[in-house]
């Protein structure tokens, strides 16, 4: 199943009662990548009071992993409102970091929650997205005469050949969109080729 992911890094800034909230949104593949990016922003803004964040990994309709951090703000006033925005925007594999420069006026718990939520909303409103398509990794085993027909069928479903080994038969490692698997399986059956995909038991 495909879902939207960030196309590029995005930035937005708001000011509330003299506090600056600088929000960044970026696509990430895992928590480690997100934490490394957070460290980069901390180095970029070393004099900021807080660097609060949240991320959502996988399909946003059934996200595989999520995380958040308040970085010294009162518990639940920063990371949680950022994550709430992510959970309602329908974008996956994404992280938002909001950098705060304290302006001298305390906002209170409610004010902080609204401010971090507004900063996250602001950066999401102008975010460019692209479709992330879940790909299946498969192996096709066929006779030499079937190699070109297999390549043709693979092209019809927007798949690609990763590698080919020639032995007594042709063994092709291929990638294709998961949603195209039923059609590709039917085509392989018609050609008399064996198809085995990772994690599907075939």
Written account of the structure:
The strands form three sheets. Strands 2-3-6-4-5 form a five-stranded antiparallel beta sheet, with helices on both faces. Strands 9-10-8-11 form a four-stranded antiparallel beta sheet, covered by helices on one side. A two-stranded antiparallel sheet has the order 1-7. Helices cover 32% and strands 36% of the residues. Helix 2 packs parallel to helix 3. The protein is α+β, with helices and mostly antiparallel strands and 202 residues long. The chain is elongated. The mean pLDDT is 92. It is built from five helices and eleven strands. A hairpin with a 3-residue loop joins strand 9 and strand 10. It has two domains: 129 residues, Ribosomal Protein S5, domain 2 (2-Layer Sandwich), CATH 3.30.230.30; 64 residues, ACT domain (Alpha-Beta Plaits).
Structural class: alpha+beta
> What is the makeup of the main sheet?
5 strands, antiparallel
β-strand percent reads 35-45%
The CATH homologous superfamily of the largest domain: Impact, N-terminal domain
Percentage of residues assigned to helices: 25-40%
Strand order of the largest sheet: 2-3-6-4-5
Which regions contain 5 or more consecutive residues with pLDDT less than 50?
none
CATH topology of the largest domain, by name, is: Ribosomal Protein S5, domain 2
How many angstroms does the end-to-end distance come to? 20 Å
CATH architecture annotation of the largest domain: 2-Layer Sandwich
- C-alpha Rg (nearest Å): 23 Å
Order of helices and strands: EEEHEEHEHEEHEEHE
Mean pLDDT: 92
> Which class of the largest domain in CATH terms?
Alpha Beta
Overall, the morphology is elongated
How many beta strands in the DSSP annotation? 11
Structural domains: how many: 2
Number of helices: 5
């Amino acid at each position: 199943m495909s879902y939207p992911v960030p196309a590029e890094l995005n930035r937005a800034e708001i000011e509330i009662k003299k506090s600056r909230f600088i929000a960044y949104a970026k696509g990430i593949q895992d928590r480690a990548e997100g934490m490394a990016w957070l460290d980069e922003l901390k180095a970029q803004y070393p004099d900021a009071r807080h660097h609060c964040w949240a991320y959502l990994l996988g399909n946003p309709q059934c996200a595989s992993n999520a995380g958040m951090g308040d970085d010294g703000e009162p518990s639940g006033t920063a990371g949680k409102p950022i994550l709430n925005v992510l959970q309602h925007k329908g974008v996956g594999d994404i992280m938002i970091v909001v950098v705060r420069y304290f302006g001298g006026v305390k906002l209170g718990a409610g004010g902080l929650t609204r401010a971090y939520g507004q900063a996250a909303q602001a950066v999401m409103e102008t975010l460019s997205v692209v479709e992330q398509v879940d790909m299946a990794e498969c192996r096709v085993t066929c006779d030499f005469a079937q190699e070109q027909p297999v390549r043709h069928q693979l092209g019809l479903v927007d798949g690609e050949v990763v590698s080919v080994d020639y032995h007594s038969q042709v063994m092709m490692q291929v990638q294709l969109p998961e949603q195209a698997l039923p059609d590709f399986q039917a085509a392989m059956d018609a050609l008399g080729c064996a198809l085995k995909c990772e994690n599907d038991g075939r």
